[in-house]
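Researcher: Next sequence.
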Amino acid sequence: MNFSAAELRKLGPALAVLLALLAAGGGLIFWAQQEQRAAEQQLAAARSARAEAREKLLRIAEEEKEVNDKLAVYRRLKELHILGEEQRLEWADAMTRIRTSRELLDLRYIVERQRVLLTAPGKPANVDFNASTMKVDIALLHEGDLLAFLHDLRESGNAFYAVKRCQITRTGTAATGISIVPRLRAECDIDLITILDRAAKV
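Model: Next structure:
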């Protein structure tokens, strides 16, 4: 279809408006696409930041649980007087209490000099595990007396008690019927273990 010059002049303003609208529409579409890309980038950054914050919170929660667990162990060790210097007077008091409460007829013991145990793998360099061996000689009416003695000793605290050896022998003494006579004797080697942190503040 061919337009005359007069018709083209009449269509000129409308064509100009159309071209302007097309340009504005194209510009609007381009702007919308740019805004969408920017919004998507912001959303991705926000999601990444949220994921990173969640990971940090999880790490903090795990570290807090680990600290609380270690603190609970430390407090328990402190309550038992296992941390710090060895408590020889408390050990002697515990032996006296056990002998009296269990009515043990004959209980003798000596505690050897303290020694440093072999280094445990992964332990802090400033922490030492020390042990003093207690040699016990005890008269027994029956085997249950020994188990009761070892139970009471562990419950007394003041160290971690590790039984290295216990040997029970018969005394050969016959019962007289007049008095209670121990028929057994036990000889035990028991390590009294304490933990010393040389970096701890006194």
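Model: The mean pLDDT is 83. The two ends are 105 Å apart (CA to CA).
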